[in-house]
Design a protein that fits this description.
single chain, alpha+beta, 2 domains, six-stranded antiparallel sheet, 37% helix, elongated
Length: 197
């Protein structure tokens, strides 16, 4: 007997669905529920951008500034990201030698939003604010993000340290590493470092 026949057969005596039809219905409902749970998990907001900025500046958030992505700045950003930046300008917040950047980068297929604080040219901390991928969420954990603390750019615009990846989250880890490099580069550009070199 085929599956479709099992699914539509009924107990001839009482007109109820057969046990096989009930099992198939249950399995179908379970598959749909698991898929819906995965889709619901696909966007996790771990911290609102406003709360991130308040933490970064001790509650006294400066007015946003804009950095135009043109010329050498755009070329440097494209080299770091491996693709052209989507925006013509980027908002950031700064007070003294401290700046905060809220940036997006694609992990596998969806953007990951990260907040990065730079203090005196070094990363103070990295936070995943919104994670939209179905895998790789482990990059939000301190065991991963703490690796960036104190990192700076070298002359080739790479981090001055190796960031250990996470098995099963390689694309998300790579995306956050690119964002860390980008924030350091943009901080240099914004603070008068010209092309960020």
């Amino acid at each position: 007997m085929s599956i479709s026949a099992l699914a539509t057969s009924s107990d001839a005596r009482n007109g109820r669905p057969s046990a096989a039809a009930v099992r198939i219905g249950f399995v179908t409902a379970l598959v749909v529920a698991v898929a819906a749970a995965g889709a619901a998990r696909a966007e996790q907001v771990y911290q609102q951008p406003a709360a991130f900025l308040a933490d970064a500046f001790g509650g006294d958030v400066p007015k946003p500034r804009k950095l135009w992505l043109a010329g050498a700045t755009r070329d440097g950003a494209a080299a770091i990201l491996g693709h052209e930046p989507d925006a013509l300008r980027i908002r950031y917040w700064a007070h003294g030698d401290r700046s905060a950047w809220i940036l997006d980068e694609i992990g596998k297929v969806k953007p990951i939003t990260a907040g990065i604080v730079i203090d005196e040219g070094a990363i103070e901390h990295v936070r995943v604010l919104v994670f939209r991928e179905t895998r790789g969420w482990e990059v939000r954990q301190p065991f991963f993000t703490d690796q960036f603390r104190g990192a700076r750019l070298d002359g080739a615009r790479h981090l001055d340290r190796v960031i250990d990846g996470i098995s099963g989250a390689t694309l998300s880890a790579d995306a956050l590493t690119r964002l860390a490099r980008l924030a350091l580069f943009l901080d240099r550009c914004a603070s008068g470092g010209g092309d960020g070199s």
